[in-house]
Amino acid sequence: MTFLNFSLLFGLFAGLIPILIHLLNKQKLQIVDFSNVEFLKILQKQKMRKVKLKQWLLLLIRTLAILSMVFAFARPTIEGYFGTGIESHAKTSVVIVLDNSLSSATKFQGEKALSKIKDKTKEIISFLKKGDDVQIVLPNKNPQILPKTPTRNFTNLSSEVDLLSSSDAEGNLSEAILTASELLANSSNLNKEIYVISDLQKNGFGEKLKLDEQTKLYFLSVKSAAENVSISDVNLDSQILTKGKKVKVSAKVNNFSPNLLADFFVQIFINGKRVGHQTLNIAENSSSPVEFIFNLEKSGIHEGYIEIPDDALLEDNKTFFAFEVPDKAKVLAVTNTEKLKPDFLKILLEASENQAGIFPKVISADLINSENFADYNTVILSNVAEFSASVQSKLKSFVENGGGLVLFLGDRVDIKNYNSGLLKELKLPEILNPLGNAGQFESYLTLREISFEHPIFEGVFDRKKPTIDSPKFYYAYRLGSKVENDQVIKFSNSDTFLEEISRGKGKVLFFASALDLQWSDLPVKGIFPPLLSRSVSYLSFYKGSEKISYLTSDSELQFIGTTKEEQINSSVLTPSEKIVRINPQLRGSELKLTFEQVEQKGFYRFLVNEKPLKSFAVNFPPTESNLEFLSQSDLENLVDGEFLWVVEDASLEDSILQSRFGFELWKYFLILTLILLVAETLIGRNRKLEAVQA
């Protein structure tokens, strides 16, 4: 047992007062015998024995009452939560895990959780004494430490706490607590304490925690709103983006509350203009999909966001996304058709020039060496006999850097040159044995298996019952297709007609037949014009599912493109309208831009020579929107060892002192004192009454 007010134990000497009084009152009386009372002696002895017993009992009660009162004021304690018995004057090293993650911005009864967290932090700092030291850990993926070394300047640290704001990044309390434990491992102070001040969001914890037995762990729970609505999983579903066409954006609205959301209003904005809205009914603790379809009025960079009404956590009520609509597709078509035969590729491309933003250039195969493929979005090769080593190398670089390539076979194709050259260079399927005979129209293959969900067919056919008038293929080649490639269309014999292959950042569409009426009637079928134009649009305008970045402590944005500029002035415009200069990395025609100072949500615009090049949308981590909290029993499963749970309404100072020095018994000693005084009053009154009667 220890005493928090040890000096008051000198009051125990007051317990001698009743004894001294008893001794002083005990005078030796002279005995005078009277004959007429002699017969009373026997009765007197019996009565006095009882009186003396009560006298000794009163002496004991009075002494114990004084001692009990002294003990109460001395604040005795027994072994506490952590069983350390550390004395009150022991120097203490404290690390405070201050949870300023996104969820700390949640409002509850008009006050943000972070405000309460900061008040608790400053209250703990105010308890520290001379010789103590303190640090603060902010729970990011790579926890931030304030200051870097333990400080005894408590006033300055409290001022720094006042300046803290809610982070836009995801919090990781488990990592922060482990960091705090590592900091305390270097301390020479006898008393080591970690305080976790947080709303204790479930998603803020990771693996199970095990700390040094000498380290005390405190969890200070701050009340916050547990209900929230958020937006997640924003996707640009339309994968071929062209000006004047419709685009579809989908998302998910999450209801983290036990109540039904009826007629919940959701709206979408593009470049600051509202282009759509929806009303949803979302069941309790569930999610609902939402879709928006709108027209792309112009090309270029588009920045948008989906917004929901205000709630407890305002910061996650907007989810940003960005995409780019190319201005035009520059297409190079290389053909090698006999003069007596119609060049269907050239005819179709020239007829569709300026349509859907496609601008073609058609050349003969003998001019291919003079072309710079980097000037084009897509290159089409139709019946080109063979390729030199330099052309193979340029085509490989073109595809890997994001270009699109379309391959049609034909009667002039040198199969051996293709297999050992271009196809091998790009790791494309080999051309194997022929199927059928050119010019023989009696037997043929048709198209049977078509992946209508492929972006090439988006908006071309009826989604419910897609049907086509299949061409007849009299002659084709079997391709050495690989499982990892996408067989978009298959012949009726299950061989591949159209195969998609991804290489680097680019794609290749490989057709197993030719644009020749001796090979098939494809060029004169209704499917051919949309198939060709959609293939070109897919390779030129395809953006896939635009990735949305989420804030973490090590977030970075990177853009790789091409440039012809000799002097490059690169910068990033942040969401706060701050321009940050960055150093580009140039390798030949490749431009690489990297930005690491990602600290806010919103749009980050990459600028080259002050012209917008790319926009990235950055959002809060979706896990921070679920405000479900841990209970004390949940923490017991997460922490391997003892800890103290301090509820928000409890006295922080009393809880800390109790855990440091034990469980205080002063209340019980005070109650005992009162009981003894009542007993003394009752026994003393009875004794006087008996004395009178005697």
What layout of secondary structure does this protein have?
Layout: E1 2-3, H1 17-25, H2 41-74, E2 76-78, E3 92-98, E4 107-108, E5 111-112, H3 113-127, E6 133-138, E7 144-151, H4 154-163, H5 173-185, E8 191-198, E9 209-210, E10 215-221, E11 228-236, E12 246-256, E13 261-270, E14 273-282, E15 286-295, E16 300-307, E17 318-325, E18 329-335, H6 344-351, E19 358-364, E20 378-382, H7 389-400, E21 404-409, H8 415-420, H9 422-425, E22 431-436, E23 447-450, E24 475-479, E25 486-491, E26 496-503, E27 506-514, H10 528-541, E28 549-550, E29 557-562, E30 570-573, E31 579-581, E32 585-587, E33 590-595, E34 602-608, E35 611-619, H11 632-638, E36 639-640, E37 644-646, H12 652-661, E38 663-664, H13 666-693
Parallel strand pairs: 3-6, 3-8, 8-10, 9-36, 10-37, 18-19, 18-20, 20-21, 21-27, 28-35
Antiparallel strand pairs: 1-2, 2-38, 4-5, 6-7, 11-12, 12-15, 13-14, 13-16, 16-17, 22-24, 23-25, 25-26, 26-27, 29-33, 30-31, 30-34, 32-33, 34-35
Task: Tell me what you see in this structure.
By secondary structure, the chain is an alpha/beta fold. The protein is 24% helix and 32% strand. It has 13 helices and 38 strands. The model is unreliable at 80-88 (pLDDT under 50).
Entry summary:
By secondary structure, the chain is α/β, with parallel strands linked by helices. It contains 13 helices and 38 strands. Helix content is 24%, strand content 32%.
